Amino acid sequence: MFQILMLCTKRAIVLIVHGFAEHCLWYNELAEFLVQESYLVVAHDHVGHGQSEGDRAHINDFSEYVGDIFQHADMVKKTHPKLPFYLIGHSMGGCLSIMAGLEQPDYFQGMILIAPAIIPDRNAASPFKIFMGKLLARMFPQLPIIKLDSSAVSRDKAVVKKYDDDPLVYHSGLKARWGLAFLSALEKIKMEQENVDWPILNLHGEKDALCDPEGSKMLQEKAKSKDKQLKLYPEAYHQLHNELPDVKDSVYKEIKTWLAERVK
């Protein structure tokens, strides 16, 4: 499932890359905001997510997600070849955005990362747990092994309730094979992060319990890009774009300003 939102006047293309378990309709408000700023906004549900086909939240390799990003991007580029192209990636979508940039560094003009997944959870990725995960991934690839805590999504209780009540959100646990593919993707980023040389705005909550903000700090230090910004929100949780109003408004403003300064 994918969508395209735009006005007659278009300054640039923005492809929103959603996170694990959720779907692209969670970005309608952000998309409408950007459309009013004259951006052409597109998004799609990853395979196995939302209204897309495939086994729920199951993947063998993250390259499948990345391939879909380029397939969608190619479709949009064919009809708007002269427009600059930016990514907005949240959580797993941030991981995928970085992977896409590493695969084709000149394809996008920059990206905005919102609480990107860059390093594994230190408790969930102990050597023993990784060993057991590999074993389970071979024997029971679709076995749920870790359940996400929805209360960590946002400090806004209305957002958490909406998340819990959404039938298109995947509410079961992380599957063994998906978890192994996820760790492999994070290892790739760790090995290649110094090759990140495109413009980046990175926004992360310091109380994020789902994607460690230390990963964003590491990327800020290691990436060789000369145009990189990291803004941390001291009390914020995971979905900054769905946080309490002071954080949410700041995030929208940061995105608007950053894009406007780079789109001529």
UniProtKB/TrEMBL annotation:
Protein species of origin: Potamilus streckersoni
InterPro entries (alphabetical): AB_hydrolase_1 (IPR000073), AB_hydrolase_fold (IPR029058), Hydrolase_4 (IPR022742), MAG_DAG_Lipase (IPR051044)
Keyword tags: Signal
Signal peptide: 1-19
Transmembrane regions listed in the UniProt entry: none
Protein name: Serine aminopeptidase S33 domain-containing protein
Keyword Signal: yes
Domain Serine aminopeptidase S33: from-to ranges: 10-244
